[in-house]
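May I ask for whichever protein you like with its backbone structure tokens?
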Amino acid sequence: MTLLSSAPGGASVARKTPSAPAAPPRRNQGGVILAVPALVWYLVFMVGPLVAIFVIAALHWPGMLQPVSFAGLQNVRTVLDDPVFMDAVTNTAVQLVVALPLMIVGAYMLGYYVAQQPPGHRVLRYLLFIPGLISTPAKAMVFYAVLSPDGLFNGSLDKVGLGSLADAWLASPSTALACLIVLDVWSGIGFTAVLFAARLGSVPDEIGEAAQLDGAGHWRAMWRIHFPVIRDFVGVVTMLQFLWTLFGSAQNVLLLTQGGPGSSSTTLSFLVYQKAFIAADLGYSQTVGVFLFLVGLAGLLTIRRVFRQNY
């Protein structure tokens, strides 16, 4: 705003006065209102079950329609003293240590090969994706047909004169867990390779051309050039496969081995199912669920730290 004031001698002088501050723009409240249903959904169906796991783990609950009593830490002591739980921890650790590196390394190498667009690479993408399109019961039936005592694998061994090596692979304590690991790798490696191929396809061509000019072969370009560029994406895919292997192994165990023979193929996720729906011990089941949750959280933090970018 400009004001006129009189100066000595009768002259008028224009003088500016500070104007009032503009009102802050009104925030749009529509976005907050639209987010409320999603927030309520998350609290009810995500946070709610997570809290329920910790609550049930502190209860003695011998069945859905049975009376409930407070157990405190008794369930924790029962779980830690149970040899089946220790077998499940060992089996889950072996499954993760063996299946996860094989799946990620193999899928990355396959994805790199597909990203180079060799002849027939489009058909190869579809072939790699097929295991991801097959339902879990169908995949279990395929593996049962291959690995049963009179199945395809034993029949092939007999045809080549190695019939003495035939075994009941899914019913042997020494091979049941290995068969489940093979199923995990087979069902996950193709789908993961397609994800890697899609990410590698977005890497600028100039990077690969510069590596070739420097004399780098495919092996060096794959691990020294392209891998650091997509390192964060490798971490994300590793997290997803880690969670799938950790929490999703129960269905394969249920369909193929039932955790046996004995507890030789029992995993933590299957133990949660077994104690909740077969043994009707909900307190024990959710105590294992709490342990499984903590393992998953620690695993995610570790993977994120290992695959974080170094620049």
